[in-house]
Structures
1.
Amino acid sequence: MSYSEQLFERAICKIPGGVNSPVRAFLSVGGTPRFIDHAKGQYMYDVDGNQYLDYIGSWGPMILGHNNDLVKDAVIKAAERGLSFGAATEVEVIMAEVVCQMVPFVEMIRMVNSGTEAVMSAIRAARGFTGRDKVIKFEGCYHGHADSMLVKAGSGVMTSGIPSSSGVPNGCAKDTLTARYNDLDSVIQLMEQNKGEVACIIVEPIAANMGVVVPDRAFLQGLRDICNAEGSLLIFDEVITGFRLQADGASGYFHIIPDLVTYGKIIGAGMPVGAYGGRADVMKVISPVGSVYQAGTLSGNPIAMAAGLAQLNELKEHPEIYIKLNATGQMLRDGITALIQKYDVPCQVNGAGSLACLYFTKENVIDYETAKTADIEQFAKYFHFLLEHGIYIGPSQFEAMFVSYAHTEQNIMQTLDGIEEFFIKIAK
Ligand code: KE4
């Protein structure tokens, strides 16, 4: 029995499903989750000494690669001064100033401890600012596990096959309206049925929790126009796309400005950090300035800020990183496209920048319904085939592949060779 299997046997006795986050549990692909011992650059190493070329990157934070020396050194240096004070620190001011420099439409920002907390707080700010209760989200988009967001959500909710979560009171879910991604008519219909009641529309500007779905720009522009016309706020959930596509994220990539934006993952460089920000007039409803309460013992934690700041400064000062990173992502997607055509397999590849997803369906994946046509069993075989070949992708058809700055062209060729071997098996 491998040590991962031994650890998993122990874990399931004390932790629900043996994991501290469901998506790690190999639920939809089967088998034993690998317990990771350490990681560096583009590689992870499990407790049995197996090396993996990693396309999870901690689900996004590791844009520079695992255990980046600049980040590690910043954490060690900060830790020597103390872990947490429950009082203001200089590093929080610098972090806020750096984010506002990198994303000019962000006039004010508040640090929290996760993407979930960022989304929960941004929605509360929108409700406080507009005096309205209802929220429009999109089927297949995942915005963390706050009650109001667990309605037709993506990521682990979609992977587990449950349409929504139990434990969410009807009183809460009734104010969450779900529209179809890439479909403005479904939004217009909801707005007409709930005239003057919608506080905000929250959207993943590139949906990366039903695989990866890059919307038409006109869809996002349409949301912007609808919010302007209806007096609702537009929230871009950039927990994944923020600081990944380019320094100013998806808002810069599409040239569309939301009223609020949420961050996570990259902003903490692997430490627990989320953030929400945007228009100063909206952010000023947040306590202690305004009447919308939001707080957190470890919000703006100095160690986490040091980690995030080290990563953001590297990205800010070396924009050429994005050129190489996005070219590597493009090389992966182009290679997969060529293999799909060569072997005529019923697959699609979606993505942008350093994000990619190979779907096992012949449908063009543009939303939740088309994403759900994917052959989950075939994906499970693909997942384990790659894992046995030392390539670790997310254990779910509905998660993205994350390319890091540490991934080399040779790594991409190795990955494409693995995918080609699998396609040869299934093309017969
Ligand atoms: P966290 O609370 O997990 O930090 O962030 C929630 C969240 C919010 N918004 C978007 C767009 C997100 O992708 C996420 C979290 N992403 C998943 C991966 N698809 C986290 C992985 C997990 O749940 O373990």
Note: The longest strand covers residues 198-203.
2.
Amino acid sequence: MTAMKTPGPAGPATPAPGRALLLEGIHHSAIEALESAGFAVETLPGALEPDDLQDALAGVTVLGIRSRTRLDADCLRESDDLTAVGCFCIGTNHVDLDAAATRGVPVFNSPFGNTRSVAELTLAEIVLLHRRVVDRSTELHRGEWRKSASGCREVRGRTLGIVGYGHIGSQLSVLAEGLGMQVLFHDVAHRLPLGNAFAVGSLDELLERSDVVSLHVPATPLTEGMIGPAAFGRMRPGAILVNNARGSLVDLDAAAEALRSGRLGGIAVDVYPSEPESNGPGFSCPLSGVPGAILTPHIGGSTEEAQETIARDVAEKLLRFVLGGSSRGAVNVPEVDLPRRVEGRHRILHFHRNVPGVLGRMHTMLAARGINIHAEYLQSDFERSYVILDVDASDAAMVQADLASIPETLRVRLIC
Ligand code: NAI
């Protein structure tokens, strides 16, 4: 039995593990994982507006969303039963993370579930740009037959410069070497080179030595506009640029100019400084209609396989939290990972404001009831703490009421 309670008067115990609501057509592997753990799962193909979402959340312990559902503070405030939120996507900025943390509700996502998809698309684009395939295809769609080998190259033996050797960059490194490319990379952190790849000392050096430059860094003040007129000036004449990372990295006006002048041999772009919120006509950017540019609508990570990987990843994180208390992978609360709970003991999950004395009061309350603590795990950030105690089996409702009465308690849950 899992007993849950928010601060305030004792609420009814909720039978384990509870109800899950999955919106936006989340991949069926998440549904299967939650159902096999005992959840009653309700699914909806689309997103819900905040008011409808608030109504739909009554009695729901786990909410799964993708990127179109906004979960704001008002909605969270009214959703007493909500225990955890899974964002079955990469970003989490459509959820009020602070409001969720204040209610002891961890939010999980899957930041790396689509790594392989981005790496594969990048590699494909590098080959297509070397062979000028997209321009030939566009011409042929218009009825124009232009068979030519001029300017077309194999990628074998060419040098690929990877900026950002993290999950995607390092995966691309391995795939590109498989095609016979020589790989060098630049990263601000020390990264172990894979295969025959090697690190260079600076971005400038990478730009000067690469036939292809592929960007795989996050959007930060340091990476904003990192590829502009000066960078294009440093790149090898006719080099190729791929930006499947973030729209803020490349000055697209400068890129269009470099492409038109022949300074740049080709470019593939998947991300833009400003992107439409929904599908439809009307998009344009400085590279629109410029030959030698592959433009894709932020689909780098959009594959069936990525959806499935993300679904499994987030469902597993949700289950580890709901069934065992582990907050590993949460983006808004301190991360606590735990060994399995010992049969016959209760596990107390306690979110509280990070001020001195709370633990002491918890210990005193448990001691007063003769409850022995067998294990204790704590993590804090600046504002909040998450502590997990494995204790003697005891009257769950009483313990819950005791701990909820501590003024700093944000949420207390017992796994019995
Ligand atoms: P990651 O966090 O695993 O790797 C990023 C790497 O960049 C790290 O090794 C970091 O040290 C390095 N880095 C940070 N600042 C740097 C700088 N100024 N210069 C050089 N290196 C720097 O991230 P991951 O998963 O590989 O993602 C890379 C990019 O791809 C991110 O911008 C992400 O948003 C984007 N992305 C795009 C997708 C799409 O659909 N097009 C899908 C998934 C990710």
Note: The pocket of NAI is lined by residues 90, 112, 114-115, 118, 163-169, 186-189, 191, 216-218, 220, 222-223, 244-246, 270-271, 298, 300-301 (CB under 6 Å).
